Amino acid sequence: MKNRIASFSFDLIIFLLGFLSLLSPFFFQQARNPGINSSTFPVIVSIILLLCITLVVFEAQSSHLDTKMIALLGVLVAINSGLRFLENAIPGPAGFSPIFFLIIIVGYFFGSKMGFLIGALTLFVSSLITGGVGPWLPGQMITAGWVGQSSALLAPINTLIRIKDKPIEIIILAIFGALWGLLYGVIMNLWFWPFLAASPQLMWTQTAHLIENIQRYFAYYLATSVIWDITRAIGNFLVITVMGAPVIKIFNRFKKRFSFEHTQRTHS
Fold first, then answer.
1. CB 107 within 8 A of CB 119
2. Three-state secondary structure of the chain
3. Residue pLDDT tens, the chain, 268 long
4. What residues contact residue 153 under an 8 Å CB cut-off, 6+ apart?
5. Please, what are the domains in the chain?
6. 0.90 exceeded by pTM
């Protein structure tokens, strides 16, 4: 019971931190200055990293993560960061990124905590490698973490409707990846939009009511981002369709071997 409460507390803290980091320009006057927002982002990144470390320690203490799982997490983060480096070194279609399929599969197979960790840490490590560190990084880390965290919700649903280990399982994961391809762009645009200097029809205005600002954001999104996000959504769908089943098989082998060795150790 205590572990469940602590786990829920972590999820709540992560959500609130992400909510504040992404939407602070709309609520705090000083955050509407990009220079101030840039100067505070190291603090937010440090808090996210501290949460990640605390999460690893907590999971290790509760036996959900041991040294093998922590090592696996490190390897997966390194692989995914390498994929993002290749994405920058050999640019593909605008908006496409190969990193999301692994984040989704890890969260789906290993649970929400592992999903959040690989999402957040992939963006952090890959940003150091590619030189993509900037005030947008906290939002990227949190949003990528949400991608992995939310994919864990599909596991009990697919088990309930009895489609685990069937072809439709991968199709559902691919559709989920396509939806996040769009949603990731929608969420990340919230960091840039309050600072936009454009026509009044596209700008966020403090004095405008909520519906009017939503209409302006929709116009801004269609004018600047929808093509990129559609490309990302299609890319996520195709990569998960092709790579999802082989990667899940690899994870199954790892899990069976780990469970067997753990059982041997328990009985010895």
1. yes
2. CHHHHHHHHHHHHHHHHHHHHHHHHHHCHHHHCHHHHHHHHHHHHHHHHHHHHHHHHHHHHCCCCCHHHHHHHHHHHHHHHHHHHHHHHCCCCCCCCCCHHHHHHHHHHHCHHHHHHHHHHHHHHHHHHHCCCCCCHHHHHHHHHHHHHHHCCHHHHHHHCCCCCCHHHHHHHHHHHHHHHHHHHHHHHHHHHHHCCCCCCCCCCCCCCHHHHHHHHHHHHHHHCHHHHHHHHHHHHHHHHHHHHHHHHHHHHHHHHHHHHHHHHHHC
3. 555 666 667 677 777 777 776 776 666 544 445 544 555 656 767 777 777 777 777 766 665 566 788 889 999 999 999 988 887 777 667 778 899 999 999 999 998 889 999 999 999 999 888 867 777 788 888 899 999 999 999 999 988 888 888 889 999 999 999 999 999 999 888 877 777 656 777 777 777 777 888 888 888 888 888 999 999 999 999 999 999 999 999 999 888 876 645 444 444 4
4. 112
5. 2-267 (1.10.1760.20)
6. no
Residue type present at position 213: N
Structural tokens at position 59: 């999971």
In the block, tokens 């990667």 appear at 247
User: Residue 200 corresponds to which amino acid?
Assistant: P
